[in-house]
Amino acid sequence: MSVQTKIALVTGGSRGLGKDMAISIARKGINVILTYRTKEEEANAVVQQIESLGQKAVALQLDMADFNSIGSFMQQVIKILQSKFSTTTFDFLINNAGMGATVPFLQVTEEIFNNFLNVHFKSIYFLTQQSVPLMNAGGRIINISTGTTRFSNPGYSVYASMKGAIEVFTKYLAKELGSKGIGANVVAPGPVETDFNNAAIRSNPQMKNILGSLSPLGRVGNADDIGSVVAFLCTDEARWINGQRIEVSGGINV
């Protein structure tokens, strides 16, 4: 009897941190369902990269800002599990999809607040709720947070507050899903050089240097600094890590 290859669902897997997470997970011998919001070509390129590693992969469209689309997305997941992977379940949920904006507290509007609420908390909460019945015992939920729940960065009051909610949520997931054999952890990156938040770090050498100087290691993070840790949490070696916030920030503001 052959062992069923495990499957990870990675939201926001078409670019940036999510892309590296998806590829790093595939390198561990795990199949991947990844989502994209608008960048279908980029998502398909990631699928091809994963397939070149010998794993199965598929890309599905998902807009976390559209809360009402979660149910129909999950129906797509159920269909693709059967048609592409010949199964009805998956193992790992990586809640990575997000949006970035630097908005001073006094300039935050209700519209901005609601967008962040949907993308970074409400949609994740209910996507996770609908995913759990499809998840195998031994599965993991990995929620992506931020270093700015530990230290404050002006302009991040909404973003970091929603991520703070996710960190509390993760502890409750670990507590309530333990009986199902499902673990839950947070990975909290520090400043990373990607195209996130309009490539704020990558396109601003001065900001990059300042942020890099805050780390004892003297640089900002790269996508592969984060993806490899997420992939590790999907392995059997990480089975006893549960309910934890793992900051992957090079020791910034330590």
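That was protein one. Protein two is written in the same sequence-then-structure order:
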Amino acid sequence: MIGKAALLEAIAGTNRGILASESDKQAILAAIAQLEDRNPTPRPLEAIHLLDGDWRLIYTSSRGILGIDQFPLLKLGQVYQCIRAPEAKLYNIAEVSGVPYLDGIVSVVASFRAVSDRRVDVKFERSLIGFQRWVDYQSPSYFIQQLESERKFVAIDFKIENREQQGWLDVTYLDEDLRIGRGNEGSVFVLTKN
């Protein structure tokens, strides 16, 4: 698909958006809009077999995610959004590197509820920040198993008590290996199936 190839080419070299210039951002947004117009899955929240799984972030305009890379001595590594559609759960996992042997992990667990064919309301429930070695981080899937086992971690691990609606996400494009979403803060997310 020419549109998909154009988007991937526009994203290449931007380090998930960290290195994107204003002209890069405009080209990426134009390529995203073209793909969204040709979304092969018009009702993405009903396509659980496509939506479910571990997704790796390849581009975002989210200042919250990209801001991790702005801290001194820290570099943003891979970022994942793991969707467990049957349980209506999602796990955002950011790998962080910097000081040798002290690679970190920043994770947020959330539940979601479909409110239309393509929009979900998201409620954040738990956050965990720690060193990968101390939480036995091996992969996103393994880490999620550990989170769900109610294991106590040597990390900053806390429940997010505010149960009000905390955000929403539109899935605007979905195929077997690419997902595009737009969030309530105006951010775009482009992810590939891991």
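Helices lie at 2-11, 22-37, 48-51, 63-66, 140-148. Keep this in mind for the problem set.
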